[in-house]
Amino acid sequence: MKRIINTPDAPKAIGPYSQAVEIKGTLYISGQIPIDPATGEIVKGGIREQTGQVMKNIYAILKEAGYEFTDVIKSTCLLADMEDFSAMNEVYAGFYPEDPPARAAYAVVKLPMGVMVEIETVAVR
After folding, report:
1. What residues of the chain score a pLDDT lower than 70?
2. Rounded distance, CA 112 to CA 114, Å?
């Protein structure tokens, strides 16, 4: 049976999707963008600030579902500009100091609300 995960500590979905869905011990977190859930606004700053907010949003959803970053097995990072890859990577790495998950990173033409980064995540217990 699937369980829908929603927390006020992460941004509300901006479309017809859930923040996350858990089924059979696997948590699928929808792509998170750098919206501050307290204000509903995109965080100010560049790729480092945006990546940090995305990771905070992911953590809020993980926590709500009873998971940790150590449970994450796969992430997909979408970047508006591949020139931001190194800076995004530095911030992202800080959340996975040991045994980081598998990951893919892509440059895309455009992301929702004009953001610089979006990250989706899968975790397993």
Report:
1. none
2. 5
Neighbours of 80 (CB within 10 A): 18
Q: What is the pLDDT of residue 14?
A: 86
The domain limits of the chain are: 3-124
User: What is the third-level CATH fold of 3-124?
Assistant: 60s Ribosomal Protein L30; Chain: A; (3.30.1330)
Cα 117 to Cα 48: distance, rounded to the nearest angstrom: 10
104 contacts 76 by C-beta, under 8 angstroms? yes
**Residue 71 tokens, joined:** 């449970």
72-79: strand order across its sheet: 3-5, 20-23, 26-32, 117-124, 72-79, 102-107
